Protein 1
Amino acid sequence: MTFTEKLTRSIQSTQSLLCVGLDPVVSRIPQPLREKISDDAELIFEFCRRIVEITKPHACAFKPNLAFFEALGAPGWEAFEKLMDVIPSNRILIADAKRGDIGNTADKYKEAFFDRLGADAITLNPFMGLETLVPYTKDEEKAVFVLVMTSNSGAADFMKRRFEGRTSLSEYIAEELSKLQTGSATHLGMVIGATQSSDLQPVLSAHSSSHLLIPGIGTQGGSLMELQKVLETHKGIPIINSSRSIIYAGENHEDWISMVLNRTLEMKESFKPITEKYVV
Amino acid sequence: MTFTEKLTRSIQSTQSLLCVGLDPVVSRIPQPLREKISDDAELIFEFCRRIVEITKPHACAFKPNLAFFEALGAPGWEAFEKLMDVIPSNRILIADAKRGDIGNTADKYKEAFFDRLGADAITLNPFMGLETLVPYTKDEEKAVFVLVMTSNSGAADFMKRRFEGRTSLSEYIAEELSKLQTGSATHLGMVIGATQSSDLQPVLSAHSSSHLLIPGIGTQGGSLMELQKVLETHKGIPIINSSRSIIYAGENHEDWISMVLNRTLEMKESFKPITEKYVV
């Protein structure tokens, strides 16, 4: 099954474009759970496992962010690996690794995330050049999501500045990705921030068939209406990520589980105007 | 002790600018060692431990590349952590992580590499903006080495192109780093490729006090003479990295240990014309 087929099915069966981002921080895990588990790595695993359990009927994808696991060292990596096994195999699993390195190093990462851990997709940083993406591009079951115009304010420092006659470095990168994309290869998607809607049109036009991983809705304050408008003519599929807004919705409340569920349903509902285009 | 003091002492006591890069690949580890150890993570640890043992009188710094450890999952991380403990505390320890992420994620990485693992320095990718560097900049005992103009050919795709009226995006980044550098903060160094000597002058001038981490000599073919010329007027200290040329110098030979030692001495000797400026 190609990545696009798997994504389409997952969206169909959940009727949702929501991706739940897993950014576990020990100090923000609900007190009732923290009281039960004293080991940090075990705790972040159990927290994420429950989040997956609660949200999976309503999320087409899950995106664990490696940094939060690596912060705990080897036990954190073990927690990450165990977590990969509890995410349902019919959902899209995006390893948010933001790696970007040359040939032999990229080969190692590709091996780790795609071959050994079974991720469907990985986020990559293109700064060191297109050759850093090539080791990942040989498998149509997989996708990469390249950082193109991220949701943070620092995107203005380099990505959003004019480059080679284009409106932005982001637009230039999108063009290069479009050239690199061939029929049966790995899908080359883009990470674009919901906070950047007003500057996204040229970027999307430059790689119009690209699936999109979209952070910035929720805690970061991106507008759904503006996002919907800019996506109107885009041919790729948007996956809308929410991390902290969902997973910490019930911070320290006894009934945190129902609060997480309610926030998830609210999010899914709020995405409906965008979702309708992609479900039957 | 500040990072610069520690680096200066390490160069003084080894009379060397050599940094040994630790990029362990199971299939390239000498047969005699492979025969003894069947567990991959244990094998890469033991190989690196011996490389450190052999080369430490002649290397001012060591640079383990995270990717090669992460490829083995949690046991690989354990090997990496164990390795951090065998690198002598009077040598510079650079975690080659190439991370680049926003606020809360960067905080996690800073915690992992500086506070928990005790690295003296980390390599960072600046693509997502200057805010991704800020969490690392509060400690004068530490340094970051920012990817500015890397040694790979893909540097031509984005880094080496004109940007905001500068000769390159690299020059622009160097300028921004120079502005961000304040007296008692973390030292903001740069990664610049020895293969890029002809384009480095404007980059070095833009951040002239910056220590440099320089890959590209050895397997990648950068010229020492050209490098020496471009460093003549630079005020920061160059750390010259060699990974594969040294660690695989004795590939599959019974006497691989003496071959690694000889290659290390050759390298150190070849750097002498550059080293003289920095030793008493």
Protein 2
Amino acid sequence: MGIDHGVGKAVKKAVQTDGKPRDACGVFAVYGHEEAARLTFFGLFALQHRGQESAGIAVADGCRIRERKGMGLVSEVFQEENLKKLPGTMAIGHVRYSTTGSSVISNAQPFLVHHADEYYALAHNGNLVNAQALRSALEDKGSIFQSTMDSEVIIHLMAPHLKDRFEDALVNALSQVRGAYSVVMLTKDKVIATRDPRAFRPLSLGRLDHHGWVIASETCAFDLIGAQYLRDIEPGEIVMIDESGLRSLNPFPAVKPCHCIFEMIYFARPDSQVFGENVYLCRKRLGHRLAKEFQPGVDLVMPFPDSGNYAALGYAEESGIPFEMGMIRNHYVGRTFIQPTQIMRDFGVRVKLNPVRPLLRGKRVLIVEDSIIRGTTSRNRVRNLRENGAKEIHMAVSCPPTRFPCPYGIDFSSKGELLAAREGSVDAIARFLGLESLHYLSLEGMVAATGMPADQFCLSCYTGNYPIVPPESLEKLCFEKQGK
Amino acid sequence: MGIDHGVGKAVKKAVQTDGKPRDACGVFAVYGHEEAARLTFFGLFALQHRGQESAGIAVADGCRIRERKGMGLVSEVFQEENLKKLPGTMAIGHVRYSTTGSSVISNAQPFLVHHADEYYALAHNGNLVNAQALRSALEDKGSIFQSTMDSEVIIHLMAPHLKDRFEDALVNALSQVRGAYSVVMLTKDKVIATRDPRAFRPLSLGRLDHHGWVIASETCAFDLIGAQYLRDIEPGEIVMIDESGLRSLNPFPAVKPCHCIFEMIYFARPDSQVFGENVYLCRKRLGHRLAKEFQPGVDLVMPFPDSGNYAALGYAEESGIPFEMGMIRNHYVGRTFIQPTQIMRDFGVRVKLNPVRPLLRGKRVLIVEDSIIRGTTSRNRVRNLRENGAKEIHMAVSCPPTRFPCPYGIDFSSKGELLAAREGSVDAIARFLGLESLHYLSLEGMVAATGMPADQFCLSCYTGNYPIVPPESLEKLCFEKQGK
Amino acid sequence: MGIDHGVGKAVKKAVQTDGKPRDACGVFAVYGHEEAARLTFFGLFALQHRGQESAGIAVADGCRIRERKGMGLVSEVFQEENLKKLPGTMAIGHVRYSTTGSSVISNAQPFLVHHADEYYALAHNGNLVNAQALRSALEDKGSIFQSTMDSEVIIHLMAPHLKDRFEDALVNALSQVRGAYSVVMLTKDKVIATRDPRAFRPLSLGRLDHHGWVIASETCAFDLIGAQYLRDIEPGEIVMIDESGLRSLNPFPAVKPCHCIFEMIYFARPDSQVFGENVYLCRKRLGHRLAKEFQPGVDLVMPFPDSGNYAALGYAEESGIPFEMGMIRNHYVGRTFIQPTQIMRDFGVRVKLNPVRPLLRGKRVLIVEDSIIRGTTSRNRVRNLRENGAKEIHMAVSCPPTRFPCPYGIDFSSKGELLAAREGSVDAIARFLGLESLHYLSLEGMVAATGMPADQFCLSCYTGNYPIVPPESLEKLCFEKQGK
Amino acid sequence: MGIDHGVGKAVKKAVQTDGKPRDACGVFAVYGHEEAARLTFFGLFALQHRGQESAGIAVADGCRIRERKGMGLVSEVFQEENLKKLPGTMAIGHVRYSTTGSSVISNAQPFLVHHADEYYALAHNGNLVNAQALRSALEDKGSIFQSTMDSEVIIHLMAPHLKDRFEDALVNALSQVRGAYSVVMLTKDKVIATRDPRAFRPLSLGRLDHHGWVIASETCAFDLIGAQYLRDIEPGEIVMIDESGLRSLNPFPAVKPCHCIFEMIYFARPDSQVFGENVYLCRKRLGHRLAKEFQPGVDLVMPFPDSGNYAALGYAEESGIPFEMGMIRNHYVGRTFIQPTQIMRDFGVRVKLNPVRPLLRGKRVLIVEDSIIRGTTSRNRVRNLRENGAKEIHMAVSCPPTRFPCPYGIDFSSKGELLAAREGSVDAIARFLGLESLHYLSLEGMVAATGMPADQFCLSCYTGNYPIVPPESLEKLCFEKQGK
């Protein structure tokens, strides 16, 4: 998509992601709690790993909607005094990475409009693949967009019909968009949640003390606020919650789900239930599978903190090889940072992690990684281990090579930046990373570890088989992203 | 109008205006200077007295428009590093008081949209009287508004026609709005300026070093940047400036002008030419007229700094009575301030002005004021003078009693708050203010001092004869403003 | 003195003084008011013209002293929430320019120490001429200084004797320092005020509602807070105020006073009584004298706002020549500012003042100035008047040529930067400024206008006769200041 | 100590320590690198765990010392632009917790003075036990202290002798102080490092690229900047580094070392060498010992992240019981935080850690902890585990019960707050924590795991045998700390 308005103040992407992909966002909603904004704050806090670029909360009190959003972490955007200015019993919230639209405050969500004396707010996880075409058609008819987010299209599609029934306007709008959406909406007196028919991204429903409802991208948000996980929002379902209770609509024909398997591998928090499975246990099973497929002779197995922790634990458990935490993480690595200058080369990698030299000296080491995207960070860490005395370094990755970009809401680097797409063979990748040996978990092994059937997943980043073809060629998508 | 979105962060109106009316805004534009944003900064700086609530600059470089705006003074919103991020040779700028719409950042101007891959920015001085009705109709058709400003209506009226010719879209939009507008617009490659057919508010055209053009609400902005004043934008004229030069359109039938006489009396800077006249000399003539109409026996004549300075000078000149500066202004009175508590009553009036007691003790004093709106500040100052020993206090005002609110862009208090409307007789007003005697300049005297014919002016705040009837009753307008 | 610690954060001197000299500081104290800090805030606010670089308040509650100080204006350093954290019924305050010591926060006053379980705070206006020698001797014995201020010497001289009687320690310390000091001090339960035997700088005593006391550099501070002016602190007097009331000490032999006449000419606010005289009326008398000494043929007389206002009024009154306000001041000129670039030369002078061209065109103009120090600003303004059409420009200055630097607390430029010292003859100065003619008031005329005998004044900046010779040669003093 | 000046702005202790003791500080120094300040920034960054309340850097360029310090983390106090203002090839730095003195900026270190035209800066880890008595004596003689830090005494003791030889002044001062000190000092042209004769706190010396020297509290700082660890500063040694190289002085008679064993157990980073031993391996050996002493029947062993990680790994390795990471840490837990209100009780414990319920349900769990001080956090976590389904919860602690406060620089809670001192028996502690069983590692086992002889350690927090008796009774010390 990548429209650049040039409006507003661009924010530097200082977030440190170690070359890992970044998710599309996290959403949260609450209905029927007298401290709805505060609860949403905690919900977003638990979902912070899904988006660290901006955060926002919109809250309704039966008459109007108030909102606060800003660039930065949830705890940076919201302080006690802000929350006090957000009264009401209904709220939605959002944390964001910019998978479409620029990294500017005007693109932060929830997206709030005041239209014909009513308020509407929307928060969205996922990517719409036909947003650009819909936008152009709307602009020709006179619609003026405020942001560069694909999500704004939904509101504009609804606008001419809002003087009639809200839910008809919503169904009408959703019937025109294609792609991935886990959406929560807020009006002055109701909360709405919906998930696209293929259910690419997670979205769960919970109960709060018997008289309130909560909705969240991941169940770890329910744990934090003491809510009870009930079930996932169904593929294609629209849930509307107001004073008469919860109503469920299923206006669209059923299709096969396409859950994003990368949520299991990397994105979701290990303490969440995602697509019905516990992530921690699933990742340990990925480690078990790895140990069955690949056992070079090593003295110890370890993760790079904190990426492959659970797969590494599973690997050690299955293989009987000792598990160590051989690189120590500096807990104070924040987001603003002073750069070492040329005089002090090679600091970068050591600022975050420091190897325990007496532990590693002369050892044969197996690193278990969850995934490799660009590979540059891994390469630096491998070199750092080598300089600290490791004799052999092997690596096992808990998924197959990631070869194709994602149009459904994950900010993979373009195809050109995907290490596996660029280097081709596993041997070449191992050479690039400086490893004695490298093994990727097989597709079958990965799916088997989830405990779910393969046809429930979107595996397109491994296979290139896209369940919904985006209108622009993927290469073009990549190119635009590189140009950013 | 007074729609309150509830969107955005409300800003406290801390601006100290001494109970004086506040103007609707100041606008500025430049075409053809390589430091367009910097020039606009200085232009707005010279126009700061027309609006101290927010400031903004939009600049075009032939490809796109960049913008910065914020709450506060021009010098607070813009620093050196901001200006550097606003490259381009065309710019428009705006300083604002909130006569319609809330005092929030989303209501700051210029108003910028990105529509169908083009950028449009607009800055507006004046009030549209049918904005609310137009907005409702547009919303019914699906338009989503971003602000509560009347000015936004113009862009939405243009939007469906922008894929055709820009100037047709503009003429079509302007043909639908009624009220006062001195507007400057910016596209990626041209600057547009237009003034409503009755030309309520000033708007002047200047030349910059023979190859650039400037437009400003007042000519004092030209003086600061070293530009040459050419002429006023004509009533109803649309001026378009692009690489082929300046073109003038006059698409609307001519009507009699209705210049706001209050610009001469109070608003405009004394060093400006407004409606073709020099303001300083005009105000001295108002003082001459006052001296002819009213001469109580006094020892000295003085203004309250800095409101009636020039009329007071004129009065002293005509009457031969000594001119004094008997109240000393604290130059450090800013906008944030610590309040004296109950224990320290009566500080308020002294914080800003301190009478020179040895000068005033036992004297008969004539205060010359430009105008009286609410009267509370004047009353406090009169009492303060009395406490410092003045024996008699008389007052002469350089315009008639202000009895009617203004729907064309001046933020007079509602009718209920207008002292002259509430108290009725001049004697009652004098009693309220605590004066020995009070004289208002006659309507004829005021108009004669301007040197222009009476039928060129809007005199409705004195006479109640409105040249364009606003759709809502004026009483309702007042009520809404009070409710704020 | 000019010791540069290099400790702390230097603050850019952005204060705009139009080339005028800057005073040494203002001090304020209150005893016996339950909102002592708030009262001190207002007192400092009234004294802001005496120092705009830093501000501070120390407050005592009978047990301890709390303090807040910072760089910037009083209204910038203090907000409502700060004042709330400063409880107590006794307070002292200070506003500062850096005449000695660097412009850093560690040099802001009041200077507060915690010594042997007691607190002592001090605020000082004036310069000590033997501070450097005293400091060296103290350091040799082991004293460690915290700032580069001459004022700190007083506390260190007191420290070894503080375990005995406070007032003996103070008299002992003051008997060792030489130079100008108007000082207020605070302990946990008393307020002390003292003035050097020659009484260079003003210091007045006032009564607050019959049960409280106030002390201030100028009486305008009393007016603001509604206090009654009683008398000046006497030369060499020490006033101690505690629960047993006010006590006065006169431990030093009497000498002839040396009041700084520049307080009357320029520094003090026109609404203050200084050295027993009203400043406004005194300045008008300076204008009368000027008119008697010098009457070139002109059409109008005017000040440059706001420097020579009252002398100009006096001149016009005496001469009968019309008084005009021919240059309009932009009230929004603040302290941070965007610079015009080379492309926009000559903005500088116009940003602050704009001449009223139709008033000045073809006229013979007399400018009345209070004083001329460096002359560069005046020269620019004269040129600006000329460019706006003035036919002849004459100038009358309300004091003699300023030819010698001041070691007693006024930050005159060094001798090399004093226009009159550099150019020599009045004719040369007139040429430098671009004037048709120039007249300085005679020394006799100046003194006569004050209504006080000449031998009560320090006239050393005009005559070079220094009542206390500073240990370093004045040339060295100048040199150091230039090196800054 | 706990002198409260009441000077300056107190800072809320928002640092989250989970009830763990806080160290006295970290110090760092560099000599002979052209980016000394930047290197010191990175050194302090690696030592951040030793003090999170304030950070400071002083840098010398051969002529003068410049400094910056502030409250907060190293990365908050320093930004790129600050470092640029700190040129020079020598520097010292400090991170701090307030074990003596208030938590205010005036107590941040390095402590810098400008004395008799020379600069001296000092940074100190440890506590002096006779600081109060020395201070009183100095004040009686006229010294004025700037802070409430014990460290300031050293400078004042040196001051009267500084006009003679620096090293004599230092030896003289150190001969008078008693207690724990690992100190680095800076003059305009040299760096000094010294450690008290008992060497309570660590201090190491390193080499930088063959021509520079570095000193740090822990060797992990050397790893980050690529320096080579050479040796520890010896007990009682003074190291002076200047242009003629490194010189070592040993002016004090040798005594037996008293290394703080708690550095091994908890404080030091696992990747540091402390007192000659690698901390990671030492902690694993503590786990081995624990497994030999205590084996309840459990299904899994886990730490509370991230306190007992390495001892837990050692325990699992020795016992063969599976190691799990059963509580997931929220990586975004920062230092400012919105409090859950009463309506949302019990959030507190879950904000930081969330148990993986499917992993723990029905299991018998062994928690391995490094140490228990107050026990409240542990109790909450145990309850949280129980609520999430753990069937049995046992705990093993890698040191004996902590029963006595520390006067040498560790901010243990007062004796009344030490869980083991208050509850007495291990059974009572287990009941308080809600455990099925609890085991503390034996004193012998702990010492044996270090691999060093017992008489090299200070074990007073376990045994109550203090190697240097503090002048105030320990109970009084405790009482004062509670009163804070």
